[in-house]
C-alpha cells in the first residue's frame, strides 16, 4: 500500500513537471544573444543620456573616454572587456574558446553603443525625460543581463565576468555582481576625481545601480526560469532543458 502511494506521488510530480515545461515558451539562445546585444547597448546609452549617472560597469570605459577622447565610448568598452576576458583566463589558468567568442560579442556590443549614441543624441533632455531615460535604461540592462546569463552561449565579457567569478569563488551571483559593481564604481571615482577633477559618469543613479543591479538581475532570472526554456538552435537538446545557474 505504501509503495503504491509513493508511486502515485512520483507520477503526479512528473506530470506536474511535464505540464510546467509544456506551458513554457521556447527561445533559441542565438536569438536571445542578438536581443541582448541590441537592448543592453541601448540601456547603457539611455542611462548615459539621463545625466543621473551611467551603469557601474559602463562607468569605467565612460570615464576613460573622457580622459582619452581620441577613442570612442564604444571602443573603450571592448578594451575594458578584453581586460576582463584576460583576467578570467589567468584565474582559470586555461585558454577558453568561449572567452574568445565572448570578446567578439563584446566588440559587437561596443559598435552598437556607438550606433545608439548617435540617434539618442537627437532626443531632447528635460527633467521628466531624463528620469524616464534612466528608469528604462536600468530595467533594460537588468533584463538584458538576466537574458544573457540564460542564453546558453558565450556572452558579453562584462556579463561573463561576474557570472564566471561566482562559479570560481563558489558564491551566489547576486553577491559577486554587487561586489564587482562596487569595484567598478570605486575605479571610476578614483579616475574621475584624480584625473578629471570632477564627477564624470557618476551620479546618484550609478550608486543606486551598484547596490541593486545584482538583485534586479536575479529577479528577472527567476521570471525567465519560470516562463522560458532556452535551447541551442544549431544543436537542439533531445530533452527540454532549462538553462540556469544558482542566483
TrEMBL record:
It comes from the Bacteria. The keyword Disulfide bond does not apply. Pfam families: DUF6198. Keywords: Membrane, Transmembrane, Transmembrane helix. The keyword Transmembrane helix applies. The chain crosses the membrane at residues 26-50, 70-91, 96-115, 127-148. InterPro entries: YczE/YyaS-like. This is YitT family protein. It comes from Dorea formicigenerans ATCC 27755.
Amino acid at each position: 500500500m505504501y509503495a503504491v502511494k509513493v508511486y502515485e506521488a512520483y507520477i503526479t510530480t512528473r506530470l506536474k513537471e511535464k505540464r510546467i515545461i509544456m506551458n513554457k515558451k521556447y527561445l533559441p539562445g542565438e536569438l536571445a544573444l542578438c536581443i541582448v546585444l541590441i537592448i543592453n547597448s541601448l540601456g547603457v546609452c539611455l542611462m548615459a543620456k539621463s545625466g543621473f549617472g551611467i551603469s557601474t560597469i559602463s562607468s569605467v570605459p565612460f570615464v576613460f573616454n573622457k580622459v582619452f577622447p581620441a577613442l570612442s565610448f564604444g571602443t573603450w568598452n571592448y578594451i575594458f572587456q578584453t581586460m576582463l576576458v584576460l583576467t578570467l583566463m589567468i584565474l582559470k589558468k586555461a585558454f577558453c574558446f568561449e572567452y574568445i567568442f565572448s570578446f567578439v560579442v563584446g566588440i559587437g556590443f561596443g559598435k552598437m553603443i556607438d550606433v545608439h549614441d548617435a540617434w539618442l543624441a537627437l532626443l531632447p533632455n528635460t527633467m521628466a525625460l531624463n528620469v524616464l531615460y534612466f528608469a528604462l535604461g536600468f530595467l533594460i540592462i537588468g533584463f538584458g543581463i538576466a537574458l544573457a546569463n540564460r542564453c546558453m552561449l558565450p556572452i558579453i565579457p562584462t556579463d561573463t565576468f561576474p557570472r564566471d567569478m561566482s562559479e570560481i569563488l563558489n558564491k551566489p551571483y547576486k553577491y559577486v555582481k554587487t561586489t564587482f559593481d562596487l569595484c567598478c564604481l570605486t575605479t571610476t571615482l578614483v579616475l574621475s576625481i584624480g584625473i578629471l577633477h570632477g564627477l564624470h559618469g557618476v551620479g546618484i543613479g550609478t550608486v543606486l545601480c551598484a547596490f541593486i543591479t545584482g538583485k534586479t538581475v536575479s529577479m528577472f532570472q527567476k521570471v525567465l526560469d519560470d516562463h522560458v526554456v532556452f535551447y541551442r538552435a544549431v544543436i537542439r537538446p533531445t530533452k527540454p532543458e532549462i538553462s540556469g545557474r544558482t542566483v
